[in-house]
Amino acid sequence: MINNRIYRFFTSLKLTVILLTAIAVLCVLDTLSEELHLIHSVPMYLLGALFAVNLILCTVGRLGWARRQSKKKFRLHVWGSPVLHAGLIVVMTGAFMSWLIGRQTYYEIPVGETAQVAGRSGTLEMRIDDFRVEYYEDRVTPRQYITDLTITKRDGSSASLSAYVNGPARYDGVTVIQQNYGWAFTATLSSGRAQRTFELRDEEWIPLVEDETVSVRLGLTFYPDYQEGEAITEVKNMRDDNPRLLWVLTENDEPVAMNVLEKGAQTQVTEGVWLTFDDYGYYTGLQAKYDPGVRVIFTGFFLVLAGLVIRYSHMMKQEITEEK
Amino acid sequence: MVTIVETMSYYAFLVTIMAAAAYVLHLFLKRTWLTKAGLVLNAAGAVCMLIAVVNRTMQVGRLPLNSVFEYLIVLSFAILCVAVFISLRFRSYGPVAVILVICAVLIGISFGKTDVGGPLLPALQSNWRVSHVMTAIISYSAFALAAGVAVFYLIIMPRKEPQGGIPEEKKNRGVFLERMMFNSVVVGFIFLTLLIITGAIWAEEAWGSWWTWDPKETWALITWIIYAIYLHLRLRPAWRGRKGCYLAVIGFVAVLFTLLGVTYIFGGLHSYG
Questions:
Q1: A166 vs B contacts (CB less than 8 Å)
Q2: Distance of alpha carbon A74 from its chain centroid, rounded?
Q3: Phi and psi dihedrals of A132, rounded to 5?
Q4: CATH code matching the domain that covers B1-115, chosen among 1.20.120, 1.10.287, 3.40.50, 3.30.910
Q5: Taking CB atoms and an 8 Å cutoff, what residues of chain A touch B211?
Q6: pLDDT by residue (tens digit) across A258-311?
Q7: Which residue of A has its CA nearest to B177?
């Protein structure tokens, strides 16, 4: 008796509508407020769990109903609703699988360097062979960002692939997506016999003296197309038409000296400290993803769509017939 | 310099307003020539928008489905075509008047969003782009029709049943309108689902994540939920009337907010102009 009441509560249309409304309200509040992060909150997870229970029980009930309706003669339209709701369960299962076993890592790798990525057969080695930007005729608007890479399995087998925006590279269950790029550069600081080389990205700060009373730092920014005499903070062009390294020396955050360096040049930034701009080149920003849940999710999408078409094409036909 | 697209949009705006006015006058004056005039003006608006769309296509060398401006001109063209179809097929001029007003507002909004239309950014170079945006246009046009029918239903059907009941003819008209609204919502809902699915597949290819809770995605989900609630509640006879109409209107407000509000208030991954 109690079980029956609980079952009826969890399969009721009222509960479905209340849960859907509550989920929609939390989504609205989340987007409208910068402080409230309701989508990834305990109330949303609870609503999601309740909705999953509601959906599973309803689907089981509908599958039983459809089977009874099709006992004597197969009727396609009665399967629309169960297939649609089962599709939603498959989507949720896929999303759960992604959360549980999916792995996704963002890498920023200079050309010529390697990174370890997770694949179906274990850890793989990903080497960046080249990165290039293709431009439209105006030579300013980028047409495509392309990374050439080689992925090697543990057994030594490998594949050379290209990843570009909207064209991910796929190998051994790993999907490599082109997401970002920038400039990597190397600079050397020398003081007397001591020498240290830094591998840096775009814009970085190196502390030279840090104690309680004084903070001396060296800021290094790479400009691929430095414009003489114009606002130095403005990047005019991402092509390396006039590459320069801009250095700024600050003492307690106040700039005390600054200048630009050509590749291979050396300058004294403060007494006894010399800076050399050694080299520069692209780094590529890639996302490597191993996620078996995605295929499950897309299968669920197909079921949802198929269920919708089966259910509502029949319903619409019925409405039109009644109208006539 | 005023472009052909802007000129044609301006003409379409004017004739659409005039078509809506002709249909509204017909409701009061019951003159057949007003419906004919409305239909001709409506069709003229569709032709103007077609010229705008074709001109834009030739100008940018691809289908104009990139920026909000391009989307608005194609959507307006689609809605004007739907209005012509409803007038010819069902001779239901009241709902058409409402969707023509909605369409005129959309064309009006597009005036402030004109852009020169540059080449495709790498993120937009995908075969999924056309299917994603086309499903949006079909879905939103269907929801616009549903909203137009809903508003007209709310205007003509009494809030409470009068003493002596609603005349049979009016009752039948109400049933007809409610069914038209339901069928429009169903078409819109199927294509909205397809819109979300194509978007998810594209996002997986381009960003490596099929769902990121980007404001546009979140609002597409909110819209989907509102119409899902409507389709569930309509199973109950009590919701096959004014209550259902309110939901159809709320759903369309969510559609407009997803299309325009989200783009200009929140930005995010879908901000392409």
A1: 122-123, 125-126, 202, 205-206
A2: 45
A3: -145, 155
A4: 1.20.120
A5: 95
A6: 889 999 999 998 888 899 999 999 999 999 999 999 999 999 999 999 999 999
A7: A323
